[in-house]
Design goal:
The complex is a heterodimer of chains A (653) and B (445). By secondary structure, chain A is of the alpha+beta class. Chain A has an eight-stranded antiparallel beta sheet, with no helix packed on it. Chain A has a five-stranded antiparallel beta sheet with strand order 15-7-23-26-27, with helices on one face. A four-stranded antiparallel beta sheet of chain A has the order 10-17-18-14, with no helix packed on it. Chain B has a six-stranded mixed beta sheet, sandwiched between helices. A five-stranded mixed beta sheet of chain B has the order 2-9-8-4-6. Chain B has a four-stranded antiparallel beta sheet with strand order 1-3-7-5. In chain B, helix 3 runs antiparallel to helix 4 (49-66). The radius of gyration of chain B is 31 Å and the shape is elongated. Residues 233-239, 241-249 and 440-445 of chain B have low confidence and may be disordered. Classes of the chains: A alpha+beta (653), B alpha/beta (445). At the A-B interface, helix 4, helix 7, helix 8 and helix 9 of A face helix 3 and helix 4 of B.
Chain lengths: 653, 445
């Protein structure tokens, strides 16, 4: 059976607490757990009580899974969960250590085994597993890359040392462990370098496959894709407005100037670093920020990303990042983002995030122009005022339909031609792309914009919810000396996409919103209040545990009755013959239990000792004892034998 | 689904592939840690689990390498009992002798019966008893069924044991705990001595080829000594032992006139004098009890057959008397009759025969005909049947017409509502209680 070294659980908890910066909780946890060695009481917990405790642990675990899954980023979800594991399992481990139950069985954790009458549940080495949990939880803190291996190796080696086989010299064990450490250091370096190399090599390749975030330089559209476009109901972020507008709000992420095949590109983004007048406050416009703000509750999947902002945004406040850049095309890019619950974006009427039009905003190839010349009278349009031209373009799309499904195209026809002449139906990317190109055909500078349409208000949380399917594409056109939004996508697009939602989506939304509200409330508390809250909870749990334990049946360890040692002195045990026996047994020639001395001596071929046996027997067993001369003779004989044995040993060495 | 999973089950339970035998408890713990840290540490940017993974993997690999050295210098000898009984755990000894020049510590010993892999068809068709109570996942995977079947076919489970430290030139005795899972012959093929590596994670194995056979007798139920077998008391209570005469003098019946060929010493002289013609004494032939124990093995139902054999074995032990004969009749390629008693053979040998009985593909009629031909010799007959149908009813009826006292026992899977006079239905799982009831009802016979 595997033994755990004394105090290793406490040490593991302290290492974990130190590593993940939860020492405040780790110290009392470790102390309380290791106090068991100095408390002489154990509580009698029934199997049902362990079931209950394990069920509570499972519920907490599931609750955490749901909470993190609903509120944290996917990559952070596991990270947070693993990090708090030692706290989740602590009550169960504490109960086991202070109980009279030596080992728990697997049915404590596996409900299916509890009901399986056929299986005999195996042993659950909870204490060992808990040390392992602490080790893994420690690994979630990547700042200590240089010494985590040493700490983890030391803890594992400690357990191995206590359980090492007796057939080996400790020096062999130590040498092997040194080799293991050397090999594992080489392995760690190799793994890390390989991962970095792989990451570097695959980054471009992956970027082409996965559209994880908006690229400020290029956007890929679904133009030409056949079949049903699948849209996700996943909530991306929430937005609170200082004044709730009746109009749908468009949040701009990036705009593009060059149509390329079925995609749009930006050849000269012109990113400039944004000024940071105060800590976590970023301003790119000279005018002072007004009271008009949008509060974003958005967590980023990566340490860099684009900020969705209204088209008239001027500043960002409370946003923790190393650097913020803004392009002339209205993209706001952050680098070195620190996870944060919320940030605010200020906006002002009459301000434009996009720069003045450039020559690229008219750019179209002759082939592209030909497509649009076939559907509108360009020569007639050119003679009209720009706003009339824009109006005509909008009117052109009025009888088009919004549709997520695209049938097979005719042979040799481009997706755009197919959209304009055959299907006359599509999703927002078709409309935006066609509108931008048509406006350019009639000599109006236009840009293709991607972002989000914010219009799903949740009264429950008093905020707007933005989902994946709210991602939208539209056009900005420059006339009358400013950029105007031209969104030709039929206004029913959101309703159409809402119909695609799963029937159980309201339930998922309810859970997500409740968790969000709890998290929002918690984040609004001051740091002092949070610490006080945790402490109060810990104190309440502690007293509950004490109250529960005091009320439970208990036994006292080390009581006088159990520890009474019966000692008895036998006559003759001081016989020097036992020295010979001890030496021989140290050399591996043991005497079996119950084996007579004479049989033993014959078995190990030490016949020279047979002569000494009668005196020893007399000394040991004769009620009258051995005479003084006999004792002297035996002492001398034993001394001689020992001296001889020592010389033989020295010679062999 | 089971058809596709079956090769996997065979592979992972192959004796030489058993990683569990090579890994200590701590080794298995480390292996689990390797899997978990590999999963968590796949992104080296996010966690440092990859460092723990590298350490644990390096530790296990080097431990595995180190376990190839420092093999124990010992010899082993297995000391098996002659017989064991199915379902009854027993202990036997293994003697480990130190042949080297250092004390052998931390050794473990494992005894390896010859593992019999259940054929696919048998695996598909034979559900584990109580399988319906297992959870859906276990039923779907069918691993428990496979393990149960493999163990049943292998026949013996032996626990691995720690070897006490073996002194130089000395030996240690290891008490091995074993449980026979079925009757029949079990082959023990090799003893495996394992020694740990310096970290105690992986065991190196040293195999000692040692072939032995163990005969596992069928499970037996207790039948009360008060039980009176059918036809056991015919004319003379106690058979030959209770006869008044000794030597060649058998039981006197009557006197009759001398016939040619009668021995002169049988002439009853006083009567001859009275009748004035020779009169001889007539004797009854020496009588002894001869019973038949008919075992029905004509259905391919493993569970029922085991119970039939157990019930038959219980009766065999009860009916065995030195002065009577007991004929065991069963089907194999033909009908076999094995007779014990009166110095022909002993009950122990009968149990050995019962241990090897397998289901027969012959028809019950074959057995039935043979029993009827044998009936005139019998003073009683115990029929242990696997089902109750027209063929078996016909046998019982015909034996009754021949005035053979009968004890009919029918093993069933379900409760039998309809009762047949003189027939005892024993439900699986309640056989012992059924036999007890049989004992108590003997008073009305």
């Amino acid at each position: 059976m595997m033994r755990l070294p004394l105090y290793i659980q406490g040490v593991a908890i302290l290492c974990w607490g130190w590593q993940v910066e939860m020492l405040l909780y780790a110290i009392p946890m470790a102390l309380l757990l290791e106090l068991k060695s100095h408390v002489n009481r154990r509580w009698v917990f029934s199997q049902k009580e362990f079931y209950l405790l394990a069920d509570i642990t499972s519920v907490v675990l599931v609750g955490l899974v749901v909470y993190y899954f609903a509120t944290a980023r996917v990559t952070h979800f596991l990270f947070f969960l693993v990090q708090v594991m030692p706290m989740v399992f602590y009550p169960l481990v504490l109960a086991r250590n202070y109980s009279t139950t030596e080992k728990l069985t697997l049915d404590v954790f596996f409900y299916s085994i509890r009901n399986d009458a056929m299986s005999k549940p195996g042993i659950l080495e909870l204490d060992h597993i808990y040390v392992g949990i602490c080790l893994v939880a420690m690994s979630t803190q990547v700042d200590s890359r240089s010494w985590y291996l040493l700490v983890a190796a030391a803890l594992v080696a400690w357990v191995l040392y206590v359980n090492r086989p007796a057939r080996y010299n400790p020096a062999i064990w130590l040498s092997l462990m040194a080799m293991v450490l050397a090999v594992s250091i080489a392995g760690v370096v190799t793994l890390r370098e390989s991962h970095l190399l792989l990451k570097k090599k695959s980054a471009d390749w992956l970027a082409g496959l996965i559209r994880s975030q908006t690229d400020p330089f290029k956007t890929q559209t679904a133009l030409g894709r056949v079949g049903e476009l699948k849209l996700s109901d996943q909530i991306l972020f929430r937005v609170a407005m200082s004044d709730r507008s009746s109009e749908p709000l468009l949040l701009h992420e990036a705009s593009y100037d060059t149509p390329w095949d079925n995609d749009w590109m930006l050849l000269k983004p012109g990113f400039k670093r944004v000024q940071q007048p105060q800590q976590d406050t970023w301003r790119w416009h000279k005018r002072d920020p007004s009271e008009q703000t949008l509060t974003f509750y958005l967590e980023y999947d990566d340490d860099k990303g684009l900020l969705p902002v209204p088209q008239n945004a001027v500043a960002v406040e409370g946003f923790k990042a190393v650097e913020l850049n803004k392009s002339a095309y209205g993209a706001v890019r952050a680098i070195g983002i620190t996870p944060q619950p919320d940030y605010r974006v200020h906006y002002l009427d009459g301000v434009e995030i996009n720069s003045l039009p450039e020559s690229s905003d008219w750019r179209l190839t002759e082939e592209q122009k030909d497509i649009f010349r076939r559907v509108i009278d360009v020569d007639a349009e050119i003679l009209l005022r720009p706003e009339q031209r824009v109006q005509h373009v909008e009117q052109f799309f009025e009888d088009f339909k919004y549709r997520l499904y695209q049938p097979e195209m005719e042979f040799a026809s481009s997706p755009m031609e197919n959209f304009l002449n055959v299907t006359r139906a599509g999703h927002c990317e078709y409309f935006a792309s066609a509108t931008a190109m048509m406006l350019r055909t009639v000599d109006i500078p236009a840009r293709y914009v991607v972002g989000y349409s914010v219009q799903e208000y949740s009264p429950m949380i008093g905020m707007y919810i933005v989902r994946s399917r709210h991602a939208h594409a539209w056009v900005i056109a420059y006339f009358q000396n400013r950029w105007h939004v031209v969104d030709t996508t039929p206004s029913i697009w959101l309703e159409t996409e809402t119909q695609e939602s799963a029937y159980y989506q309201p339930v998922l939304d309810l859970i997500a919103n409740m968790l969000f509200m709890a998290r929002h409330w918690w984040n609004q508390q001051t740091e002092d209040a949070k610490t006080l809250g945790w402490l109060l909870l810990a104190v309440a749990l502690f007293f509950f545990l004490i109250w529960r334990m005091m009320g439970s049946p208990q036994i006292k360890l080390g009581s006088a009755e159990t520890d009474a040692v019966i000692s008895m002195e036998y006559p003759g045990t001081e016989s020097p013959f036992y020295r010979i026996k001890s030496v021989l047994e140290q050399q591996g020639m043991w005497r079996y239990k119950g084996e007579s001395l004479s049989h033993w001596i014959a078995r190990i071929n030490r016949d020279e000792l047979l002569d000494l046996l009668p005196i020893h027997y007399k000394w040991r067993f004769d009620p009258t004892g051995a005479s003084v001369s006999d004792k002297k003779r035996l002492n001398n004989a034993v001394d001689n034998w020992m001296r001889h044995a020592h010389e033989v040993n020295s010679d062999e060495c | 689904m089971h058809r596709f999973i079956y090769p996997g089950h065979v592979r992972i339970t192959r004796p030489n592939d058993k990683r569990s035998r090579r890994s200590s408890e701590m080794g298995r713990f480390i292996l689990t840690g390797i899997v978990i840290t590999a999963a968590l540490g796949i992104d080296t940017d996010l966690t440092l689990s990859y460092q723990l993974f590298a350490f644990l993997l390096g530790l296990y690999v080097l431990a595995g390498f180190a376990s190839r050295y420092n093999k124990p210098n010992v010899s082993v000898k297995r000391l098996l009992p002659v017989f064991a009984t199915a379902g009854e755990a027993f202990t036997y000894q293994v003697r480990v002798k130190n042949e080297g020049d250092k004390v052998e510590k931390d050794l473990r010993i494992t005894d390896q019966p010859r593992v019999i892999v259940p054929p696919l068809e048998e695996y598909l068709q034979t559900p584990e008893p109580g399988e319906e109570r297992r959870n859906a996942y276990d039923r779907f995977i069918g691993f428990h069924r496979y393990i149960w079947l493999q163990r049943r076919k292998t026949g013996l489970m032996v626990e691995s044991e720690k070897v006490p430290a073996v002194p130089i030139g000395g030996e240690s005795i290891v008490q091995m705990k074993a449980e026979p899972l079925r009757r029949g012959v079990v082959d023990l093929t090799q003893l495996i001595v394992s020694q740990p590596d310096p970290t105690g994670l992986v065991y190196g194995l040293t195999r000692f080829e040692q072939q032995d056979q163990l005969i596992v007798l069928p499970k037996r139920y207790i039948i009360s000594p008060a039980y009176v077998p059918p036809g056991g008391r015919h004319y003379q209570p106690g058979g030959v032992n209770e006869s008044q005469s000794v030597g060649e003098s058998d039981e006197f019946v009557s006197l009759r006139d001398y016939r040619e060929g009668d021995r002169v010493r049988r002439i009853h002289w006083p009567s001859s004098a009275k009748r004035n013609k020779p009169v001889v004494k007539e004797f009854r032939d020496e009588y002894f009890v001869r019973q038949a124990l008919v075992l029905d093995n004509c259905l391919d139902d493993w569970e029922l057959l085991e119970e039939v054999v157990s019930v038959a074995a219980s009766f065999a032990v009860t009916l065995e008397q030195s002065d009577s004969l007991l004929d065991l009749m069963f089907l194999a390629d033909r009908v076999h009759t094995f007779t014990i008693g009166r110095g022909l053979a002993y009950g122990q040998q009968l149990l050995e025969v019962l241990a090897t009985i397998q289901p027969s593909k012959k028809r019950f009629e074959t057995l039935s005909m043979s029993v009827l031909r044998h009936a005139r010799l019998l003073s009683g007959c115990v029929l242990v049947l696997m089902s109750w149908d027209e063929d078996r009813l016909a046998l019982v009826t015909q034996l009754s017409h021949l005035n053979v006292p009968l004890e009919v026992l029918v093993l069933t899977r379900n409760d039998v509502s309809a009762t047949q006079e003189g027939v005892h239905f024993l439900k699986l799982g309640e056989v012992e209680a059924g036999l007890a009831k049989l004992t108590s009802s003997r008073g009305v016979r």
